[in-house]
């Protein structure tokens, strides 16, 4: 009888062409399915994730599911996969899920974080894990701008022109930031996110902090529903899919 296995994993996105499988490219999904195929003695196993991440984007708490006829315990699944996966992917947790569980469609919310290093000098060892932004920032103005992002809005201005969904209304439950030493960390929790949405919001908020745009320009951009009214897209390396929320 088939069982559905749910796994939570972390990965360093630096050397991947994103999560989703692409012919001839190294991807997270490709590595996962290759490991599962080995465990299943050559049988192809399809993996479903909570969502895709782009090239260079990291995950602290991505969630996947797959179906299997093998009778391994959750702990055995965790050990078997980690023994076969490369060093830049790790399974943090495995458990048997209900047959109705779906990594993407059962999710009730997602949390993304974005890390910005605000020191003057570049750190060569952190260049793949945060965005270096060595400019003076008005943190109070940025905090006010972030609060305008919270709530239910049409985020057309804050998504890529490549976005292929018609309904661009999303609810952001929490948009805030913390500063510790020279690391600025943004946190966003919402019921869903559009393509490049977090990176465009971060790029726009940083422009507010630099004085390049007003706090009120956030409201104007939301109302305009036009990508040209928001700021630049922040680069991928600062972005982390932090957590996926499910009922129970």
TrEMBL record:
Enzyme class: isomerase
Residues involved in substrate binding: 112
Domain Pseudouridine synthase I TruA alpha/beta: residue ranges: 10-105, 145-247
Annotated catalytic residues: 54
Keyword Isomerase: yes
One annotated GO biological process: tRNA pseudouridine synthesis
Superkingdom, natural source: Bacteria
Transmembrane regions: none
Catalytic activity: uridine(38/39/40) in tRNA = pseudouridine(38/39/40) in tRNA
Molecular function GO terms recorded: RNA binding; tRNA pseudouridine(38-40) synthase activity
Enzyme Commission number, as recorded: 5.4.99.12
Keywords: Isomerase, tRNA processing
UniProt cross-references to PANTHER family, sorted A to Z: PSEUDOURIDYLATE SYNTHASE, TRNA PSEUDOURIDINE SYNTHASE-LIKE 1
Stated role: Formation of pseudouridine at positions 38, 39 and 40 in the anticodon stem and loop of transfer RNAs.
Family recorded in the similarity comment: Belongs to the tRNA pseudouridine synthase TruA family.
Quaternary organization: Homodimer.
Protein name: tRNA pseudouridine synthase A
